[in-house]
Specification:
Blueprint: H1 33-36, E1 49-51, H2 55-61, E2 66-68, E3 75-78, E4 83-89, E5 93-100, E6 116-118, H3 128-133, E7 135-147, E8 154-173, E9 176-185, E10 196-198, H4 206-210, H5 217-231, E11 235-238
Parallel strand pairs: 2-5, 5-9, 6-9
Antiparallel strand pairs: 1-3, 1-7, 4-5, 7-8, 8-9, 8-11, 9-10
Length: 262
């Protein structure tokens, strides 16, 4: 996002004196197709993930001080534009609900939701400011990808042995918290299913990623390196085709992520 989109930073009064995240009532950034990874931003990565962990469990897992996600109900099918928990560090680390949909650039106001940011593009003008000072973690149990032709797609669930921490970016627009998931070239079990995957963070790097100090290309390289290590630990299995459509889907049904055979 161009720097001109953001008003002059306020001071938060942190020990390190880092700036507050600025607010804007109506975002007017511009972006190139290259920065967004178009055509088809929603097709760039999984369009669904599962997050079956409660708010209290997330607070314990991420050593957060608290949060504002009291109305979160675990879901086995989080879709674009849904609200889901993120972990961010502002004055303190907290768990907060945010909408999975980034504000569209002024020069491309239509199209599907913007749900991911390519790791290769984090230092370009559209993403630079959010990457520099508005990073977050998107907790997830796993995510879905599809193979096959339109109308006959087979869903796959990619997961690890425990809760996963996807690297993300977050911003507040008109008082509403938004987020995207950062993606990279697939290096996990999903490489056989899709050429992109979320960039996951091991626990040892959570503090570095959430640090409100401005980031540089060194953090981008760190994410590239560590996410490849996490990717090697992931597995995939086929799940029920019920997840192919969100209409009428019971998102609290744990069988949505269970392995089946056709």
């Amino acid at each position: 996002m161009p720097m001109s989109w953001f008003p002059k930073a306020q001071r938060c009064g942190r020990t390190r004196g880092t700036p507050c995240e600025p607010q804007r009532s109506s975002p007017k950034p511009t972006a190139t197709i290259d920065e967004l990874g178009w055509p088809g931003y929603a097709a760039a990565m999984c369009g669904r993930f599962a997050m079956d962990t409660t708010t209290d469990e997330l607070i314990r897992e991420f050593v957060a001080q608290g949060g504002r996600a009291e109305d979160w109900a675990p879901s086995y099918s989080v879709a674009p534009t849904d609200r889901a928990p993120i972990v961010r560090e502002h004055d303190e680390r907290e768990v907060q609900l945010a909408k999975w949909d980034w504000p569209k650039p002024a020069n491309r106001p239509s199209g599907p939701p913007i749900i991911d940011a390519r790791i290769e593009k984090l230092t370009t003008s559209f993403w630079r400011t959010a990457f520099t000072r508005a990073r977050c973690i998107v907790p997830t149990t796993g995510y879905f990808e599809w193979t096959g032709e339109k109308g006959d797609k087979t869903p796959h669930f990619i997961h690890g042995d425990a809760l996963l921490a996807a690297a993300g970016l977050t911003w507040s627009v008109d008082g509403e918290r938004r987020f995207v998931v950062i993606t990279r070239e697939a290096r996990d079990a999903s490489g056989e299913v899709h050429d992109r995957m979320p960039a996951f963070l091991p626990a040892a790097t959570w503090d570095d990623w959430l640090d409100p100090e401005p980031a540089d290309e060194g953090l981008q390289q760190l994410l590239t390196d560590v996410s490849e290590q996490v990717a090697a630990t992931l597995r995939t299995h086929i799940v029920d085709r019920r997840v192919n459509s969100i209409r009428g889907l019971d998102r609290t049904d744990a069988t949505l992520v269970e392995a089946i055979s056709y």
